[in-house]
Design brief:
mainly alpha; 11 helices; globular
C-alpha cells in the first residue's frame, strides 16, 4: 500500500505533476491498459528494490528507512516514456529544450548521488528500482516479451467479472477505466452498446491506431510493442 500514500501535500503534488506530464506521453504510445499496469508494476518493483537492498546491503542496514509514496510508480512511467520517446523535448526554464532521455537519466543520476550520500536511502532505492523497471519493460516489449502480461491478465479478469470483487468497489474501478475496456466487457456479454459508447469506443480506437501509425512512420514496424502489433492486426481484420 506504500504507493497509495504520501508524506505530505508537496510530495503528492510533485509526483502527480510528473505523472501528468509523462503519463500523457506514455498513454499516447501504449494506451490506458499498459499505463495502469506499468504504474502498478513499477511500484512493486520499487518496493522490491527497497526491500532487498535495505535488508541485504550492509551500508543501508543501519539506516532508519521506510517506503512511502508513488515515486517508484511514477519513475517507472517516466523511464518507459523516455525509452519509447527519447528525443521528445521539454522546455525547462533555465536550460531551454531538453531531450526526454537526458531529463530522465538526469533524475536517475541525482537519485544515485542522493543514495551514495545517505540522503533518503529508502526513497532513492525505490526511485531507481522503478525507473530501471520502466526502461527494462519497454526494452523487453520491443523483443516481444511482456513483463506485465500477468498483471494485465489480472486487471482484465477483474474487469470482466471473473474475479469476484465487491459490487461497489468493482463499479468504482470501472468508472476510472477507458471506453475501450467498457466496450470489451459489453462485447463479452453480447450486450449492445449505446450510440455514445459506440462513438467513444470508435474514437478511442482511431486515436490509438493513429498513434501506432505515427510510431511506424518514425521508428518502423519492428519497434512496435507486442500489444501494438496485436491491436494493428485486429484492426486490419475489421
Amino acid at each position: 500500500t506504500h504507493m497509495f500514500t504520501h508524506q505530505g501535500i508537496w510530495h503528492f503534488a510533485m509526483n502527480m505533476l510528473l505523472l501528468t506530464w509523462m503519463g500523457r506521453l506514455y498513454l499516447a504510445e501504449v494506451g490506458s491498459r499498459r499505463l495502469l499496469s506499468t504504474y502498478l508494476a513499477g511500484g512493486l518493483a520499487g518496493f522490491l528494490a527497497y526491500f532487498v537492498l535495505t535488508n541485504g546491503f550492509k551500508p543501508l542496514q543501519g539506516e532508519s528507512t521506510f517506503a512511502l509514496g508513488a515515486s517508484a510508480s511514477v519513475m517507472a512511467v517516466f523511464g518507459a516514456a523516455a525509452t519509447l520517446r527519447p528525443e521528445s523535448r521539454f522546455n525547462l526554464i533555465l536550460f531551454g529544450p531538453v531531450a526526454l532521455k537526458h531529463l530522465f537519466w538526469g533524475y536517475v543520476v541525482l537519485d544515485y548521488f542522493g543514495l551514495s550520500q545517505g540522503a533518503n536511502p529508502g526513497g532513492n532505492v525505490a526511485h531507481l528500482g522503478g525507473a530501471l523497471f520502466g526502461v527494462l519493460l519497454v526494452k523487453q516489449d520491443m523483443k516481444g516479451v511482456n513483463l506485465v502480461g500477468w498483471l494485465e491478465w489480472v486487471l482484465d479478469a477483474m474487469m470482466s467479472g471473473s474475479i469476484q470483487v465487491p459490487r461497489r468497489k468493482r463499479n468504482q474501478f470501472r468508472a476510472s477505466t477507458s471506453n475501450r475496456w467498457k466496450a470489451q466487457e459489453r462485447a463479452e456479454s453480447r450486450a449492445p452498446m449505446s450510440d455514445d459508447e459506440f462513438n467513444a469506443d470508435k474514437a478511442d480506437r482511431q486515436a490509438r491506431l493513429d498513434a501506432i501509425l505515427d510510431k511506424i512512420s518514425k521508428h518502423g514496424y519492428d519497434h512496435l510493442s507486442a500489444e501494438d502489433k496485436r491491436f494493428l492486426f485486429e484492426q486490419s481484420q475489421r
